[in-house]
Design a protein that fits this description.
alpha/beta
């Protein structure tokens, strides 16, 4: 097995080399990573630039193991777009990380998503439906679906199977350019199997949400999902490899 983990974060300012060693043992060859700092919902533009700077350092330190998502706070308009351009065109970042600064379908995201379409970037969009404790601008699958309807040329990856797989999969099903990742502490083998059955293996990608969760468990739930060998190959890395081959062009 050769796997690509499409959903990881820096651990503070770095990427723990012990995780890279564990990836070697498990067959995880590449980690797609973002930096969201101290998990502040609405970081200032200087904070965002610093997060992306720290990530760029790690990308240069581990060029064979890491690829980077540029974290964005869409509320800073032109300054955010300029930072995105620099990180893609100078630092080689391959995607955008949308977290909880704005909802995914907020018009503030449109210039960023238009740039993503132009450069075939992967847009990793956080989505989670919660009964309690939801952040004010935390997207659900419905927000991702509306953004996807407005931007049919953007390659979206909805994180965490939307946090409630049954309803989230239904929300994004009509949009073939939306894939899902398998990260999320409550997501297990059954939910992975459900996603593959409903969306097709071409729209499901292995993600762990490192460094917050265990890589072994996240590999295990793919292996335990009862997928065919061809489906496993696509989920573990085939889909992500195809997307990466186009990103940044």
């Amino acid at each position: 097995m050769t796997a690509i983990d499409v959903h990881t974060h820096l651990d503070g300012a770095g990427f723990d080399p012990r995780v890279l060693d564990l990836g070697d043992r498990l067959g995880v060859a590449l980690f797609l990573c973002s930096s969201i700092g101290a998990f502040v919902a609405h970081p200032g533009i200087d904070e965002v630039r610093e997060m992306n700077r720290m990530l760029a350092v790690q990308l240069r330190r581990h060029p064979d193991r890491l690829r980077g998502y540029c974290y964005v706070n869409p509320r800073y308009g032109t300054a955010t777009l300029d930072d995105l351009r620099r990180n893609v065109e100078e630092e080689g970042m391959i995607g955008i990380k949308l977290w909880i600064a704005t909802l995914a379908d907020d018009p503030l995201t449109d210039p960023l998503l238009e740039y993503a379409a132009e450069h075939r970037l992967i847009v990793l969009a956080h989505a989670w439906r919660k009964t309690v404790g939801r952040f004010p601008y935390e997207s659900t699958a419905e927000h991702v679906a509306r953004a996807a309807a407005r931007h049919p040329e953007v390659r979206f990856v909805m994180a965490h199977l939307g946090g409630q797989p049954e309803s989230a999969i239904d929300a994004v099903l009509p949009h073939p350019h939306v894939a899902v990742d398998t990260s999320g502490t409550i997501i297990g083998a059954g939910e992975v199997a459900l996603a593959v059955r409903r969306l097709g293996a071409e729209r499901v990608a292995f993600g762990s949400d490192l460094h917050h969760v265990d890589l072994v468990e996240n590999v295990g739930k793919i292996l335990g999902a009862g997928l065919s060998p061809d489906e496993e190959r696509l989920v573990f890395g085939g889909n992500a490899a195809r997307w990466l081959a186009e990103a940044g062009r």
